[in-house]
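**User:**
If convenient, please work through this fold.
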Amino acid sequence: MRRALMHYNGAVYHVMLRGNRKQAIFHEPRDRSLFARFVSESLVKYGARCHAYCWMTNHVHLLIQVGDVPLSTVVHYVASCYAHAFNRKYELVGHLFQGRYPYEHVANDAYLMTVARYIHLNPVKAYAVDRPDNYPWSSFRAYCGQEHPGFLTTRLVLSAFSSSSENATEAFARFHTIDDVHIPAWDRLDDVGSPPDPLEVAEIEVVSLARLLTDASIRFGYPIEEIVGPGRRRGPASARAWIAKQAQLTGCASLSDVARRMNRSPQAISKLAAKS
């Protein structure tokens, strides 16, 4: 049987939600923004806090501290609201997320620091970006004093590094340059009670220009040959714009690389990306 979730006011958990059969749960930036909105709503509704996050293509990580309401309620609100909105938007049916979500109890400051680093280095380990501050869909930038979403709280993690806010920020940044990123030892999470392989739990989807082409072909309903072909139809042009924007967001390819693959000039691709 699934082990009972430890709950007490102030407990901190590392949670992952993954797409069913590892499918993508985000198709465009607005999807991630919508997911963030439901996270914010759930935190306010149930008196919880979010200390770190990362939205990958086919899964998300959250570092959540609960109040009186248990973690399952907080996570269920986010998952159910987003799945309903996602299926309605893309005219799909069925489960968006894979089974029961993996979680782990974060019991001390040392592990809190390690889990925060693991979450923020997910895009780097997936080769989506070369540095965590180049990935726009995680909380790392907020910890470095840049964009700070309203639902995020950074004080708890930073206090584990130093009581001085300036020293804590510097130590936090240095900690994220260490190469040996620990993959969390997950608790007994699956239905039969045995812990899943940590490498399987941590598996992340590699974003590439070839993958973006395939995703665009499926999303916009045009064959790849037409997307990269010489035609000027609006539909394939929209697909090219989406690819260019996604390449910028993930850092998987430069606009010059996209232009070469699309048989367009860099100037034309740059204009498409700006409009997307």
About this structure: Strands lie at 12-18, 49-55, 59-65, 103-105. Residues 102 and 201 are 8 Å apart (CA to CA). Residues 182-206 have pLDDT under 50 and may be disordered.
